[in-house]
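Input (structure):
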């Protein structure tokens, strides 16, 4: 059940219970007040009448007594009966039409009291019998019975007034609780949606709730959390890049590079050695042999060219570079591959980037390698987006692709010299690019999701520190 429904049901139930209890207690107060009033009236009417008929009884005037009793009976509309007893306690006169009810004298015995009121439960409903002694110390008494007719009609009137009031209270209460529950649940729903947003890793977004109550405080805390998560994510990224920096530093020590280089050259050189060994014994060379030799020499050349770029990367001949036209040039170098693999290229905001000081051919190498890597990541076509961004101190070029992505387990290796997952790769592309960007005082880092794509960012300072 939704929270909103629960709140509506709960508040409606409270309204109903409060309405019910109020009605019951008001009804009780009315009944008590009415009965007190009735008792007073009964005592007063009985007292007056007893004074009036005292003489008639003394004189034994049955006629006058009965007349007086009937007069009062007709005048007071709630009166059911009146009767008087003589000094010996026998019925002297009464107003009963169908004869005196059996046992009437035992209904409300005075037992030496001057006045007594007794509630009788009769066939005609509750009747209050008020008895007064006419002559003290004798058995002569006057009794009158008062019905609760007017109490009944008062209660009916009360019911007619209160029932519609209670129904409208319940109705208004239900409507009010519906809106109140909305006030509570709406921000809660926003919180739930927001936790989904955070769950998706979209940190840095804000909840737009501006109340000054606890909900407002909570949304403030959520927004702080979102900002802190973003900062933490960025710090992690930095740390990740920093780890690479250290690693690349470590690996760029000449011993390791040489070991890698020797390892890379070993295969083509061994092939060549074996071929030449064979020529010594049988000097006729076939077309296939020539092709193998050519390919192996290409491989060696490729490795050495890149390696030389790697070693020479400190010689930065700085000039002003227009990044937009540099990217244009690099794209034209890759036109064949782009067309062949049906890859669309979109450029975004590159014109807004300021000119960067640096060695143009080295940067050509950086961007060409990044674009070729993106192309390699999308063998069945796709899209590359190259976007620019700038702030006070830095200019950034981002190369996004929707390719295979870099699996988690090789993320820490891609900048290593000679690390490659490609059959014909040298694994020098990124490590050379990394060192070139670093030599210009910038940073090269990436973000990648396996199966979704990769973005490499080249971040360069506007003021270049050479070397
Ligand atoms: N955009 C990318 N998408 C997926 N994987 C990538 C991407 N860029 C680099 N890689 C991974 O990083 C590895 C190293 O890249 P690097 O450019 O250093 O070498 P390479 O491309 O394999 O070889 P070469 O640059 O000599 O052609 C690649 O083999 C590939 O596995
Ligand atoms: Mg490469």
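Output (sequence):
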């Amino acid at each position: 059940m939704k929270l909103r429904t629960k709140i509506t049901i709960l508040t409606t139930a409270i309204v109903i219970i409060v309405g019910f209890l109020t009605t019951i207690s008001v009804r009780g107060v009315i009944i008590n007040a009415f009965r007190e009033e009735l008792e007073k009236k009964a005592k007063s009417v009985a007292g007056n009448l007893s004074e009036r008929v005292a003489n008639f009884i003394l004189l034994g005037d049955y006629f006058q007594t009965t007349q007086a009793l009937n007069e009062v009976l007709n005048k007071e509309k709630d009166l059911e009966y009146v009767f008087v007893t003589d000094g010996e306690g026998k019925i002297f006169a009464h107003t009963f039409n169908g004869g005196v009810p059996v046992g009437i004298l035992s209904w409300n015995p005075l037992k030496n009291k001057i006045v007594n009121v007794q509630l009788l439960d009769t066939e005609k409903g509750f009747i209050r019998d008020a008895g007064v002694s006419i002559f003290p110390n004798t058995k002569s008494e006057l009794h009158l019975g008062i019905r609760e007719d007017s109490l009944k009609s008062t209660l009916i009137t009360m019911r007619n007034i209160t029932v519609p009031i209670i129904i409208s209270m319940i109705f208004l209460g239900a409507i009010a609780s519906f809106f109140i529950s909305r006030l509570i649940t709406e921000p809660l729903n926003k919180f739930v949606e927001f936790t989904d947003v955070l769950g998706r890793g979209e940190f840095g977004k804000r909840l737009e709730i501006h109340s000054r109550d606890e909900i407002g405080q909570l949304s403030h805390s959520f927004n702080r959390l979102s900002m802190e998560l973003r900062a933490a994510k960025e710090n992690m990224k930095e740390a990740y890049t920093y780890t690479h920096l250290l690693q690349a530093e470590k690996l760029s020590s000449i011993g390791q590079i040489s070991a890698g280089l020797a390892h890379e050259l070993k295969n083509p050189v061994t092939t060549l050695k074996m071929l030449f060994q064979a020529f010594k014994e049988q000097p006729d060379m076939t077309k296939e042999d020539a092709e193998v030799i050519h390919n192996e020499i290409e491989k060696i050349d490729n490795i050495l060219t890149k390696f030389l770029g790697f070693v020479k990367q400190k010689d930065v001949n700085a000039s002003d570079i227009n990044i937009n036209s540099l990217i244009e040039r690099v794209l034209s170098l890759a036109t064949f591959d782009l067309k062949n693999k049906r890859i669309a290229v979109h450029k975004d905001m590159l014109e807004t980037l300021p000119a960067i000081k640096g060695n143009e051919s080295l940067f050509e190498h950086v961007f060409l390698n990044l674009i070729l890597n993106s192309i390699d990541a999308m063998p069945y076509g796709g899209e590359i987006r190259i976007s620019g961004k700038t702030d006070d101190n830095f200019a950034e070029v981002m190369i996004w692709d929707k390719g295979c992505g870099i699996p988690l387990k090789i993320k820490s290796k891609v900048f290593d010299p000679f690390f490659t997952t490609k059959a014909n790769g040298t694994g020098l592309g990124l490590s050379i690019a990394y060192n070139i960007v670093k030599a210009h005082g910038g940073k090269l880092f990436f973000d990648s999701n396996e199966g979704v794509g990769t973005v490499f960012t080249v971040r360069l300072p506007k003021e270049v520190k050479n070397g």
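Notes: The chain is about 55% helix and 15% strand. The first strand starts at residue 79 and ends at 85.
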